[in-house]
Amino acid sequence: MKGFARAAAAAALTSLVAGHSIFAEFEVNGVSAGKENALRLPTYDGPIEDVTSQYVACNGGPNPLVKFSPNVVDVPAGAEITARWIHTLDTDWRTGLIIDASHKGPIMVYLSKVSNAATASIPSSGWFKIHEEGYNSGTGKWAVDRLIADRGYKFRIPTCVAPGNYLMRVELIALHAAGNYPGAQLYMECAQINIVGGGSLSPATVNFPGAYSGSDPGIKFNLYTSPINYIIPGPRPVTCGGTQPTTAATTRTTTTSARTTATTRTTTFVTTTRTTTTTARTTTGGGGGGTQSAWGQCGGIGWTGPTSCVSGYTCSVNNAYYSQCVPA
In the predicted model, is pLDDT for residue 109 greater than 50? Predict the structure, then answer.
């Protein structure tokens, strides 16, 4: 019995850590700044689940920050940034696991102006959002799906952001266990950048902790309902030349649409004020045909896909809403 208990505990731990990830490299207009360069990194790839934690700004605490790069990377205003996420610091983003495909959710980017990005203490105040992407109802894809497919996540620095040193907070929220709080897994790291050029934008800011609460519909969310109506947490991204966004996030849902030009791809976020009531299914998943692949979902409330796993894997229950194929 003791051997079985140890094996079960090991399988459960494996299923939890399989999707962990770290933002550990970035590119500026297609040029890499270098792996682990100009970043504040933990040695552990785990999430923060307590949105009231002091560590929700740039990670730390349960994932101790031990790698502090002395460098600051120049970034032109308007530049395209590619954030490279990897499963662990030993993973190669070109060939290795980025994050498990079951860890669906949004990706957001914040900036906080500091005097010296290489030496500044991690601020709790002064953060403003420059980018967000959640669920695209047209494609049925999440931002994390795009990250996995592209092996990197692209966004732009607004052209009107004032020049100077910033901490750039890139955040992924995995929602596979977010039906209860705590449950959503927040993965964030901060890069040290110096914005060159730009404008004179002085946006409204939020605090970390403070920008999110455990009851926010983007933090406590049942991923396994249909249709999906997801509200991205926090303020809306800043805009150049328009009305600055507010932090209100309770009366709108977000969808995304891609607009393509000859040279660049711009993502436009459409905001509406529809209030949609979604009724969750309360039956456990039962019986989709076929066999699920390694690390894929194999059960949970509302699940209609495969409930058996490929050879060598077994279906392990994480919570009422999510079971995963893990090594037998």
Answer: yes
- For residues 140-146, give the mean pLDDT: 98
pTM of the model: 0.71
Joined together, the tokens standing for residue 70 give 């002395």
Provide the sign of the torsion angle of the four alpha carbons 247, 251, 256, 262, taken in this order: negative
Classify the phi-psi angles of 119: left when phi > 0, otherwise alpha if psi is within -120 to 50, otherwise beta. alpha
Cis amide bond preceding 209, omega within 30: yes
One-letter identity of residue 233: P
Can you give the three-state secondary structure of the chain, one letter per residue?
A: CHHHHHHHHHHHHHHHHCCCCEEEEEEECCEECCCCCCEEEECCCCCECCCCCHHHCCCCCCCCEEEECCCCEEEECCCEEEEEEECCCCCCCCCCCCCCCCCCCCEEEEEEECCCCCCCCCCCCCEEEEEEECEECCCCEEHHHHHHHHCCEEEECCCCECCEEEEEEEEEEECCCCCCCCCCEEEEEEEEEEEECCCCECCCCECCCCCCCCCCCCCCCCCCCCCCCCCCCCCCCCCCCCCCCCCCCCCCCEEEEEEECCCCEEEEEEECCCCCCCCCCCCECCCECCCECCCCEEECECCCCECCECCCEEEEEEECCEEEEEEC
Whole-angstrom Cα distance, residue 230 to residue 218?
6
Q: What is the pLDDT of residue 319?
A: 54
Please give the pLDDT value at position 270.
Answer: 32
CB atoms within 10 A of CB 186: 23
* Per-residue pLDDT at 222: 97
